[in-house]
Design goal:
The structure holds 2 protein chains of 2 kinds. Chain A contains 6 helices and 10 strands. Chain A is α+β, with helices and mostly antiparallel strands. By secondary structure, chain B is mainly beta. Chain B has a domain of 101 residues: Immunoglobulins (Immunoglobulin-like, Sandwich). Chain B is built from 2 helices and 36 strands. In chain B, the strands form 10 sheets. Chain B has a 5-stranded mixed β-sheet, with no helix packed on it. In chain B, strands 12-11-10-36 form a 4-stranded antiparallel β-sheet. A 4-stranded antiparallel β-sheet of chain B has the order 13-14-15-16, with no helix packed on it. The chains are: A alpha+beta, B mainly beta. At the A-B interface, helix 1 and helix 6 of A face helix 1 and strand 19 of B.
Amino acid sequence: MKKIKTYILGVFLVFAFLACEEEMDVYHESIDRLNFIYEEWSDTLLNRTFVFDDKTRVFDTVWVEVATQGFVVDHDRPFVLEQVMGDTNAAEAGVHFIAFNDSQVSSHYVVPAGANEVKVPIVLKRDASLKDKELTVRFRIGNNENFSSGYPQYQERVITVTDMLVQPKYWNMYATYYFAGKYGKVKHQFMIDVTRDMGIKINDDFFYELVGDPSSVDMGMTDYWFYFFTYALEEENAKRAEQGLDVLREEPTTSNPEGEIVKFTRYEF
Amino acid sequence: MKKNYIMWFACLIGLLITACYDDKGNYDYKEIGEIRIEGLDEKYECVAFQDVLHLEPNVTITDGTSDLEYFWTINLTSGSATSSEQIKIELDTIGWERVLDYPITEKAGFYDVTLWAKNKENGATSIETVSLSVVTPFSEGFYLLKEINGETDIDLHLRDGSYVMDILKSKDGQHMPAAPVSIGLDPSYCFVNAQADYEITKALFICTENDVRISNVEDMSVIYTYNTMFLGEVPTGEKPYYMWRNFYGVGYVCDQGIYFSTQAPLYDLLGTGKFGLPALVNESEKTKPNFYGVISNGCWFFFDELKGRLLYLDFNGSLHTFSDTDKEGKEQPYPINGITHKLKFFGMNYIAVNKETNGYALFEDENNANKRYIYELNLSTSNIYNPIKKVTEVSSASKLNNANLFCTYETTTKVMYFVANNQIYMYDLEQNTEELIVPTGMATGEEITYIKNYYWTEDTDEKDNFNYLVFATYQNGKYKIYMYDILGGKPNGSPVRILEGEGKVVSMRFIDKSMEMTSTIPAL
């Protein structure tokens, strides 16, 4: 019995000594993975419309970025994207966008040797059916011999595509507050019409330039656009009055059967 | 015995385990010597491109070693009028020796100059920072706006009695080719420079009958002219009146409306310094401002000739009206909207933040040019009701009915001054009496072209503060500016200063290096 106890204590001592040493594992994950890089945390939605483009423009390329998870290697590594079906307004591959397995685009779905990030194209097609509807291209990173899926929350991207007006991503609370007021399709179309001759597109870029960085909004510029559209609207409403028409309004809704009067506001949400 | 055996073993295990810990502490203590930097003043001032900043501090270490290395840095002082949190402040290394001899090439403004002294042996570092004010020949003094042969130029008279004449002609090769209208000032004007970067400077705004020149006080170069100062199309047919700092932005008023360019470098709100479109009342009504206006609590009060009403442009650039009624909704004897008289002058007194400012609007009867009224107004931005405190018809015997130049005593005494038949009068706005003033030492027979209560009372160096009554005269192609101290509202004794030069002075601005965005500056 005594010997057994002595033996146990001896073993314990050995463990106690070993406990002082800590061996760190080196990274040994053998599977390389791929994740999308989002512009904003958890925001995957990209809105695209052809409505500002010349009629001759039939393609629009959206660039999405992916990043590897694992070792950087010295050879090119193709990867695959695949459409996720299930949306009621899902876009049709080959009709509304170039299919992901079409060599025109799939040849670009490659992480170059020595790289851990790459931007790849999603090519949208201006199909006539987009004139009166907005469709969704939902896609994810597929598995192949080079990559498996990475973090679940970074596996999907969604692009909406249309040839109709859609609310620009950056017509957000800041644009609303500083110069544009609440979004409305009639208002948006009016803004497009009155700036067309100036070569300005009232799209994401326009709003991004003005309020994309909320910490450094040039309020001289937002004031300018507020008054620009306000003056233009005054002029438009005066013309409409001469023609016996009502002031410019949004489309009627059930809550507002007459349609909301179009106006630009500042410093209001 | 058995228990003792186990206890001894437990102790042994404890000792063995703790033996794994290695105390790596350093107990070989040695006192680090303190680096002392002495012999520097708190503040220095240099003229850019002229002076060499010479700093020769005494640097000692208490432990007696002397193996030190040095470097000097300079950076814009954070929070000063020409800096902003939005513009990255960078340390610029300007010297590597204990003694600094640095030729100043910085722009005008306030800077921190710092000596870093490092003990080579142990890396211990001491720093000492002094304040450096960089000025240019244009940084301080009285800028006089003058007409010369129907054209416009400015002269600068410095504190030391020296002067720079015809600055615009020397910069541009010619005077501004139209008669002068006004000269305004922004001590903290932000604009976009040739490198497409935001830049903050002091700016002078010169308005002529058909042009504007926004001038960088740094070197009197052009920032914008009328043709480049708009964000959109250049308006046609406007007559520029005045441009000034209106708290969170820059205001520009002309006969076709009032503009506002939002920017406030003090609060890190930067802007291009350009103007958009005229502000609208209730986002729909245009205005036609009268030339005169006054600043009170960061707002510009003015008379809209289109609708005969008093308006104000607030510190955010929005226009506001007043009600004709009082707080209880009662109609008042004199409405503030729909006034049909012609405004001849608008001034104010008692400028004090959060205290009541009195406005004085002198109207001429629309049917009788010899009949005038003084409206006393409460120019408070917290008041949305009828601001008219009283209306006084000027006595038919008063010389005020024929006056052509006006100003108020803007600080405390409720008096105004006017010139009729080339004579100066003081008008008591409480008693409605007037008195001829004959300033001591002012030559007779010279045409009086400008009168103003001009003051600067916020200088960091109190001896540089002043509160003058200023009279400009013109004779034989030359001007004289007489500046008097004031006692009881009247010029006291002989002129404190007399400035002289070529041309006819119609307005003036004083600039001091310590002026900031929020400094109180006399209005138009």
